[in-house]
């Protein structure tokens, strides 16, 4: 670990609390910074930010380290949330956590930490770094169930060189035990979920504030009308809950799934029961690639990839196709979703990733040809 002041991004959660605890116990000069990244007008319930800030302040007081707070809500709106809305309007399903990490936690936060005299930053992410022959690598967290490297693939050499992940070597139960033994006020606090920095909400109601409902037809792949949807942007591939499909004549009692979207025609496609063949794809195109090493790997690389968080690694071949990546999987993949990220690995190392643009799924898929 490097020398000098380390600024910990204290979120008011147990993971960042223990990250600060570990650095303090190691004799490092430590300070904490709480980032407020969303201005809540109260329309969708009580804002969590004030409670999280108070918890973060209590942790820093318990550890006897300086506490700072910054409001990055303007940066979050301009650099993350506007893109988030644009993707939904286009019918894609974005991953705001990836962009939030790139733009806020490992850019804006890093800049402000340096202004306060910190040479390095630390967060409570379950990931690890090392340096081999002068190259900084992003590695999976030891706790495979909590590994968050998927959300960190946009970090480059400059960010990795300045960042520490103190809990990355630990399993989550150990982190909670350490917080309890140290009497940290966040030791029993449940893990946060929901949109990055916005928290747990009725997502449909939240999104409807910014993207008005646009009802349209809900069809089977064969063209049979099943009902009406409220707007294709509110649904994602593979979704089962919240479709509002009641009993259908001549239909079984099996659940219905979203299997495709036609944004231009405002049509949502659904299928019942074993719908996997409508959701399967073997190839995808992805853009906006980011590589932790700073440069991309060789054409034709064999590696593994995830198209969603916590997915089991899938063997694939990565090729360059004009200004995009063509990823061919050894086995069909279910519900690969444009707007989400495909993230590449070689053993423990996260190589980088890209944003999924299209797949060869049966509904709305693209034909890539045999020799792109």
UniProtKB/TrEMBL annotation:
SUPFAM superfamilies: Adenine nucleotide alpha hydrolases-like (SSF52402). Residues 95-97 are annotated as: Interaction with target base in tRNA. Its main location: cytoplasm. InterPro entries: MnmA-like (IPR004506), MnmA-like_C (IPR046885), MnmA-like_central (IPR046884), MnmA-like_central_sf (IPR023382), Rossmann-like_a/b/a_fold (IPR014729). Keywords: ATP-binding, Cytoplasm, Disulfide bond, Nucleotide-binding, RNA-binding, Transferase, tRNA processing, tRNA-binding. The record marks 125, 340 as: Interaction with tRNA. ATP binds at residues 9-16, 35, 124. Residues 205-272 form the tRNA-specific 2-thiouridylase MnmA-like central domain. One of its GO terms (molecular function) is tRNA-uridine 2-sulfurtransferase activity. It catalyses: S-sulfanyl-L-cysteinyl-[protein] + uridine(34) in tRNA + AH2 + ATP = 2-thiouridine(34) in tRNA + L-cysteinyl-[protein] + A + AMP + diphosphate + H(+). Catalyzes the 2-thiolation of uridine at the wobble position (U34) of tRNA, leading to the formation of s(2)U34. This is tRNA-specific 2-thiouridylase MnmA. It comes from Tahibacter amnicola.
């Amino acid at each position: 670990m490097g020398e000098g002041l380390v600024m910990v991004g204290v979120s008011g959660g147990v993971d960042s609390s223990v990250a600060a605890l570990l650095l303090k116990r190691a004799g490092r000069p430590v300070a904490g910074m709480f980032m407020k990244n969303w201005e809540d007008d109260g329309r969708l319930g009580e804002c969590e930010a004030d409670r999280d800030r108070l918890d973060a302040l209590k942790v820093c007081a318990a550890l006897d380290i300086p506490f700072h707070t910054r409001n990055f809500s303007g940066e979050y709106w301009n650099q993350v949330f506007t893109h988030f809305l644009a993707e939904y309007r286009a019918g894609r399903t974005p991953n705001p956590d990836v962009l939030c990490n790139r733009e806020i936690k490992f850019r804006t936060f890093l800049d402000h930490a340096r202004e306060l005299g910190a040479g390095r930053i630390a967060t409570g992410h379950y990931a690890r770094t090392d340096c081999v022959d002068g190259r900084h690598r992003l590695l999976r967290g030891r706790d495979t169930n909590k590994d968050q490297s998927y959300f960190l693939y946009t970090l480059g050499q400059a960010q990795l060189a300045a960042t520490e992940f103190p809990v990355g070597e630990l399993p989550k139960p150990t982190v909670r035990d350490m917080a309890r033994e140290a009497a940290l006020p966040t030791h029993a606090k449940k893990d946060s979920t929901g949109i990055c920095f916005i928290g747990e909400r009725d997502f449909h109601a939240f999104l409807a504030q910014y993207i008005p409902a646009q009802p349209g037809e809900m069809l089977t792949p064969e063209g049979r009308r099943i009902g009406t949807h409220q707007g294709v942007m509110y649904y994602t591939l593979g979704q089962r809950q919240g479709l509002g499909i009641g009993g259908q004549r001549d239909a079984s009692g099996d659940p219905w799934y979203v299997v495709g979207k036609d944004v231009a025609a405002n049509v949502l496609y659904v299928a019942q029961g074993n719908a996997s063949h409508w959701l399967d794809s073997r190839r995808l195109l992805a853009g906006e690639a980011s590589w932790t090493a700073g440069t991309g790997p060789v054409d034709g690389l064999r590696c593994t990839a995830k198209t969603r968080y916590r997915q089991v690694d899938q063997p694939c071949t990565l090729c360059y196709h004009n200004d995009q990546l063509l990823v061919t999987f050894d086995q069909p993949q279910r519900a690969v979703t444009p707007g989400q990220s495909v993230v590449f690995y070689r053993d423990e190392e996260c190589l980088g990733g890209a944003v999924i643009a299209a797949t060869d799924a049966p509904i709305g898929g693209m034909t890539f040809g045999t020799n792109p």
